[in-house]
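Dear H.,

Thanks for agreeing to be a second pair of eyes. The structure we're designing against is below in token form, covering all 428 positions.
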């Protein structure tokens, strides 16, 4: 027997037992985003190395030590994409999608980083990327975050905390860099090897250090928010006001900086304490300088990337996994007249709520038996039609998994009641 060839360390197969969950999550994300005007874009997984050097930044973990870079047969240096924004911006510039235009894009696929494989951190991993090009914000910054909150709700994902910060503009950052250098220089003996190397060229990266021994020093560092220019401060205040008005909870984390150089102003992360050390599930921010930096005309932009492996893990911790296949609504119909009223009601509800998973009790049965099926189905809501309701044009609406509340409503009031029960089924 010959020796078995094995997969590359940190690169996993996604087997049939798992693909349904992945497909469900991708479908929900694409569906939610489609509802906000985001459209899919597909770009190559291989790009010229230069693209990533110029966008992500020379003195970053990714470019310094994580890229899969090789020469092709012509001697051109190519790199397997470590992230998607650079490729999407390149594609937008190259295909004339930048000048005087606005675009909302999403994309999904594998990314490659030579990292130390561990739970939640792989060498091939998948991201779901969201990019809005041509929008100065702060409205789109807030909308992006509001949209993500909706996606988490639709997926039944809880335990995510939103952290936001503003890292200002490059000029303010240059001033802050000097302040930071002074601070770290005064504590040279506490810097680890990576941080010493970064001290002169990119001291902001030290704030992003994952080394536990560095955390205390980092916690005492001066804050970037103290060096914001007036416009960035106003932008940040507006983002916060818009989020508050939309009822989105968040925490300002003045130490949040991102591991890629192209960000400015708004940065954010959705983090969880449920996945151990790898807690960042989605991260992003504004990158107003990147399009110009890559040769396009100056174009404001904002975007983020969801780490799908981590999102899948988190999804599995909730009741989302069962809910992904279970119906949301079970329609109980007892008696002939009720069935005749239930079928058109079900169609109207599906019309009004695309994607609704509604299972109608077909095949008869008494009230008790049908309610047992409703419970066993995993549905969130039972709609109940008996002879009486059918005659009166009403419907019983029973919450199966909340407080068990029950109400009798006119048929016209059912969509709103369903929306309240289904969309409110988990609070972030
Ligand atoms: P981290 O701080 O965890 O290294 P990052 O700041 O490098 O993340 P980004 O480049 O902003 O991450 O990517 C966005 C998201 O992609 C992260 O929040 C995470 O969910 C996911 N991600 C990043 N690197 C990996 C990896 N090696 N394996 C799995 N998921 C990853
Ligand atoms: Mg990283």
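And this is the sequence the design step returned. I haven't edited it by hand at all.
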């Amino acid at each position: 027997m010959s020796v078995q060839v094995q997969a590359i360390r940190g690169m996993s197969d996604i087997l049939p037992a798992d693909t349904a969950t992945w497909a469900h999550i991708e479908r929900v994300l694409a569906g939610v985003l489609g509802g906000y005007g985001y459209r899919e874009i597909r770009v190559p997984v291989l790009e010229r190395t230069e693209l990533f050097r110029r966008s992500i930044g020379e003195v970053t973990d990714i470019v310094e030590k994580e890229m899969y870079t090789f020469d092709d047969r012509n001697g051109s240096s190519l790199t397997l994409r470590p992230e998607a924004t650079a490729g999407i911006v390149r594609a937008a510039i190259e295909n004339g999608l930048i000048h005087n235009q606005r675009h909302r894009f999403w994309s999904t696929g594998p990314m490659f980083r030579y990292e130390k494989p561990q739970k939640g951190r792989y060498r091939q991993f998948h991201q779901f990327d969201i990019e809005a090009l041509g929008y100065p914000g702060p409205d789109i910054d807030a909308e992006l975050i509001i949209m993500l909150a909706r996606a988490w709700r639709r997926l039944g994902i809880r335990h995510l905390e939103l952290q936001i910060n503003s890292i200002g503009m490059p000029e303010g950052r240059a001033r802050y860099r000097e302040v930071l250098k002074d601070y770290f220089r005064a504590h040279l003996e506490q810097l680890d090897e990576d941080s010493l190397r970064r001290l002169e060229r990119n001291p902001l990266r030290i704030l992003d250090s994952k080394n536990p021994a560095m955390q205390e020093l980092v916690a005492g560092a001066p804050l970037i928010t103290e060096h914001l220019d007036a416009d960035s401060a106003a932008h940040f205040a507006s983002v916060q006001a818009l989020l508050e008005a939309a009822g989105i909870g968040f925490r300002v984390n003045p130490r949040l900086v991102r591991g890629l150089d192209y960000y400015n102003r708004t940065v954010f992360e959705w983090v969880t304490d449920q996945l151990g050390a790898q807690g960042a599930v989605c991260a992003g921010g504004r990158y107003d300088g990147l399009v110009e930096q890559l040769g396009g005309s100056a174009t404001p932009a904002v975007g983020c990337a969801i780490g799908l492996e981590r999102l899948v893990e988190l999804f599995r911790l909730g009741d989302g996994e069962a809910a992904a296949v279970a119906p949301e609504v079970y329609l109980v119909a007892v008696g002939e007249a009720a069935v005749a009223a239930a079928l058109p009601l079900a169609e109207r509800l599906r019309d009004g709520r695309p994607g609704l998973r509604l299972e109608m009790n077909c095949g008869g049965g008494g009230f008790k038996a049908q309610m047992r099926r409703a419970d066993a189905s995993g549905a969130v809501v039972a709609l109940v039609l008996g002879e009486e309701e059918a005659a009166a044009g009403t419907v019983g609406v029973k919450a199966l998994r909340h407080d068990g509340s029950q109400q009798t409503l006119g048929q016209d009031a059912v969509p709103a009641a369903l929306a309240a029960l289904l969309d409110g089924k988990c609070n972030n």
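Two observations from my side: Residues 16-34 form the longest helix (19 residues). The chain has a mean pLDDT of 92.

Warmly,
E.
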